[in-house]
Backbone:
């Protein structure tokens, strides 16, 4: 069995040697996604999609609690519409795909496949509201978007990805700003409580904000290799779109006013985040709350009388409460099966063989720590529920520990570079607020500003680049 | 109030005078969808989308019970891939949209936006299976597809629509055929039990079957004006795609074999079906099981002390069990509100005013029959649950009655035409099986064959067109 295991494990690259290749190996080997005949486009396989469904269901319920309703806008956007907001078109036009032929005829105006739907939503919203009584208008859509990236990677950066895009219209700036942050909190909740990854919350710098936004807020995460991943963003637009798109309403004073707007999005990148935050040399490691299979029963000595029956009986009991799988394949060794389910990151393996049955027991094995425990069959339901919670917490704590270990403070440009070279991770510094200093840091270290964290610290009085007075703390990191 | 009502109702066209215009009026007025700046593309508004979500959730759960898993394939399909199955490309190529530019560069090979994903699914499936142990492979995706229609109509025929497309691969022809029919049964269940519309189940003729299929099965529905609507189809492909796409597996005898395939789809047309099967001169009429709002509370004399509080208290109690809405708008008359919720098809209106509160009562008003009943507040939960079931059943029965009244038998071509001119609806005839006779009927009467029903009757011995021997009964109808 241990030989078997080594052979199997050999199939993925060592995580410390080549993280990028390890990532690709896990995506393919755990059957999360596959490459397709269309360059830069992936197929999301059922196991990967089931993770997305769990994220989506959780997130959608949170949106609905906030009064958000789903809707659906056209996938195609006319060029003239995309061009309406200046910064927005500059940001997106270079990376869109254009439809030029429809039904065998050349189109009069080319249509882009949506890279995001601010322009379309704004156009429709302007038709749908007239009075403050129609507000807030809180819409969201779950769909796919296209961005013609040059370098792609499954889930992290793909020419097509799945996401939700929320677009809301409010009566006042204050209400819109508040809603922007409420949605950021939904993302933080999903990522911390479902995906077991701690987030850093803050505001993006002017340089890093969304094309057309007045302010972009972000939840940032740190991966196993110390690189940062932007996991969700929420934008406050002010009246930047409502003016060019004429989203006007009659306010409580009876006067016409341009509305205040937000948008916010999270994508299938979150699947990439789960893989890269938690995985190890045995493959994927899924937090129980998001795992498509929370526990797998692997019967031992499957051909011995009564084993399959007992395993099935246990499965039937447990699947009422948990997302279960029972592995009855007769063409693989038990060792192969163990490795296979570990590769797929199933949080708990339940082993049950003739001896266990005799003793009225089964063995529970944790994916996160490899710890085994023997549990009486009549206690297994209760124990599994506890164990899944323990695993969820432990995985969060492990990820938080990695982040803590990878977070450093720097007071000079050299120090930022040194810290990143040694440790990657987040580097905290003060910053004067000048984009030239931000550009300099990027140029020298390859790190982008992650955000200006909501939780500020006063690390020094001056900017590490220009030496001028600095009042804001910024976190920097190399990114995916 | 009655004046108010008339004014409001005037805003939609009379259903008997101009059904097509009535339909468009209801779609817009009930805020189900709206036109956009992209010709032939609609925006599905929150109220319309909520109907789709209810359909989707129900259907998706049924698919999962059958072992189907969701996945996601690229939205773009290379021209060469679309061309692989001959009949398929002939069927779809004339109505696709082509992407020719990506990221500011002309593409080497043009890519179409998926009109359906048989070609992409087949390509990926061929990579994913190798043995009979990998089968069945039961995949489905919820997505949007494009077909460059010339004449469009919200929900019924749009250049873009939402749907699910299931694609499955099986070990044997028998298993695949059985699965094709099982999925047809899911559609029948959704349409009859959720949407309260009776279906006609059968097999499409060769002329009407899906491009590339060996057999297409359909669930057909009849609308208020007697026109037919194809509401869902399930296709058995045999090996028609597995051969050109090389979907091979090692069978139980150790021999390589081409797999057997199915696909099946249902779309946002179902929203159109609900509107057209049940609506009336007061607007939309929604079956309770699919209604986004099952009951709306309209407080009477809203400014009288305690009315709002009592209405809210009732709402809080009911919303634990039902999808509720409370209308506290202070800028509309009660009459306007009644009409507004009737337009939106809410199955039950609950009126509660000062007198009702004094008597510990409320008034329940059915959307389907306009019947009113006074119910004690402590019995309202129980009564509402019953009432919603009664409405659901009654709406199904009403639709079944319309269908019965609109179903006729014909023995000659003249008779088919006469029946359609008088009555529209379904016309049953015998048929020799020859496509020329089918074409003749289409040419003379404008009716397509709906299907060869599973429940056959022997109406005569000969075909009404050629007079030759006929063993099959076919149902004809003009269609949407």
Residues:
């Amino acid at each position: 069995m241990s030989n078997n295991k080594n052979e199997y494990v050999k199939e993925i690259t060592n995580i410390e040697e080549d993280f990028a290749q390890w990532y690709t190996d896990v995506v393919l080997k755990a059957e999360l996604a596959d490459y397709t005949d269309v360059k830069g486009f992936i197929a999301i396989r059922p196991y990967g999609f089931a993770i997305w469904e769990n994220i989506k269901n959780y997130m959608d319920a949170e949106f609905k609690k906030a009064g958000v309703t789903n809707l659906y806008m056209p996938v195609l956007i006319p060029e003239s519409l995309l061009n309406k907001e200046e910064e927005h078109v500059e940001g997106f036009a270079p990376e869109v795909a254009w439809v030029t032929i429809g039904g065998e005829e050349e189109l009069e105006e080319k249509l882009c496949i949506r890279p995001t739907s601010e322009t379309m939503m704004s156009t429709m919203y302007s038709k749908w509201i007239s009075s403050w009584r129609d507000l807030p208008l809180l819409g969201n859509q779950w769909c796919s978007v296209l961005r013609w990236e040059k370098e792609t990677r499954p889930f992290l950066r793909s020419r097509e990805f799945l996401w939700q895009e929320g677009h809301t219209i409010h009566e006042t700036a204050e209400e819109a700003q508040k809603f922007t942050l409420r949605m950021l909190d939904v993302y933080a909740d999903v990522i911390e409580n479902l995906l077991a990854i701690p987030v850093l919350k803050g505001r993006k710098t002017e340089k890093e904000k969304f094309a057309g936004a007045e302010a972009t807020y972000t939840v940032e995460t740190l991966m196993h290799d110390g690189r940062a991943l932007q996991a969700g963003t929420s934008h406050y637009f002010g009246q930047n779109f409502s003016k060019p798109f004429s989203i006007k309403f009659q306010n409580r004073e009876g006067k016409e006013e341009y509305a205040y707007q937000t948008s916010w999005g999270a994508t299938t990148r979150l699947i990439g985040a789960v893989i890269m935050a938690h995985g190890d040399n045995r493959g994927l490691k899924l937090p129980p709350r998001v795992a498509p299979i929370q526990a797998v029963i692997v019967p031992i000595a499957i051909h011995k009388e009564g084993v399959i029956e007992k395993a099935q009986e246990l499965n039937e009991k447990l699947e009422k409460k948990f997302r279960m799988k029972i592995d009855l394949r007769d063409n693989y060794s038990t060792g192969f099966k163990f490795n296979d389910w570990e590769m797929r990151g199933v949080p708990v393996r339940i082993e049950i063989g003739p001896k266990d049955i005799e003793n009225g027991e089964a063995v529970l094995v944790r994916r996160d720590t490899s710890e085994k425990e023997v549990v009486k069959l009549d206690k297994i339901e209760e124990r599994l529920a506890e164990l899944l919670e323990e695993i969820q917490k432990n995985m969060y704590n492990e990820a938080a520990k990695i982040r803590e270990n990878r977070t450093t403070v720097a007071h000079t440009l050299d120090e930022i570079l040194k810290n990143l070279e040694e440790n990657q991770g987040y580097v905290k510094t003060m910053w004067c607020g000048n984009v030239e200093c931000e550009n300099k840091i990027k140029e020298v270290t390859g790190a982008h500003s992650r955000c200006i964290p909501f939780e500020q610290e006063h690390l020094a009085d001056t900017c590490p680049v220009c030496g001028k007075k600095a009042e804001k703390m910024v976190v920097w990191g190399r990114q995916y």
